[in-house]
């Protein structure tokens, strides 16, 4: 796919969302029914990836603040995270950005657009550095977990292995 044809815009109140449909109805509903409200309430910021030649929304993603916190019941997970952080910098909380939603138009599924979006998010937080952020987190749908794994995300715990979503993380230090 020719990614140079795509533009990224931040959703605003007056943005007219171009046609979009993905396989998950919940993700379609969020874009058309909730994204502007979440943005207005300062709960999440949504970005659209548009193909102006085709007049469609190719993908969208929403970002919000998050943190990874020490849980005494998950000491082994915390030890694994801390191994990559120098002793003087270790904390009980680490700054993170959460991908609240990420969806690709079904017409563009399998073209690498999802990986392109993730790489751009990783780039923005490791290169542009508008704020300190060590991790990206996501509550991945079970169907999307293999996609995130392929893109370097790891499961945070096994406690949610039978749930609809799995908490996953990516250490941005691995991208920098």
Keywords:
176 residues, seven-stranded mixed β-sheet, Aminopeptidase, 31% strand, alpha+beta, globular
What's the helix count? 4
* CATH top level label: Alpha Beta
Let me know the average pLDDT: 92
Q: Unreliable stretches, pLDDT < 50, 5 or more residues?
A: none
Count of beta strands: 7
Please describe what this structure looks like.
The chain has 176 residues and is an alpha+beta fold. It has one domain: Gcn5-related N-acetyltransferase (GNAT) (Aminopeptidase, 3-Layer(aba) Sandwich). Helix content is 26%, strand content 31%. The protein is built from four helices and seven strands; from the N terminus they run E-H-E-E-H-E-H-E-H-E-E. A seven-stranded mixed beta sheet has the order 1-2-3-4-5-7-6, sandwiched between helices. Helix 3 links the parallel strand 4 and strand 5. The chain is globular. The protein starts with 5 loop residues before the first strand and ends in a 5-residue tail after the last strand. The mean pLDDT is 92.
């Amino acid at each position: 796919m020719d990614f140079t044809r795509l533009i990224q815009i931040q959703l605003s109140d007056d943005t007219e969302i171009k046609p979009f449909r993905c396989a998950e109805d919940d993700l379609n509903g969020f874009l058309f029914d909730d994204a502007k409200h979440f943005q207005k309430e300062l709960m999440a910021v949504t970005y659209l990836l548009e193909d102006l030649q085709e007049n469609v929304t190719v993908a969208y993603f929403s970002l919000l603040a998050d943190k990874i916190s020490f849980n005494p019941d998950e000491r082994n997970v915390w030890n694994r995270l801390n191994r990559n952080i120098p002793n003087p910098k270790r904390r009980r909380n680490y700054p993170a950005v959460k991908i609240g939603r990420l969806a690709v138009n079904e017409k563009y599924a399998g073209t690498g657009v999802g990986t392109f979006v993730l790489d751009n998010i990783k780039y923005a937080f490791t290169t542009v550095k508008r704020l300190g952020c060590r991790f990206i987190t996501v509550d991945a749908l079970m169907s999307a977990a293999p996609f995130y794994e392929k893109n370097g995300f790891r499961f945070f715990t096994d406690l949610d292995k039978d749930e609809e979503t799995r908490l996953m993380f990516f250490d941005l230090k691995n991208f920098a």
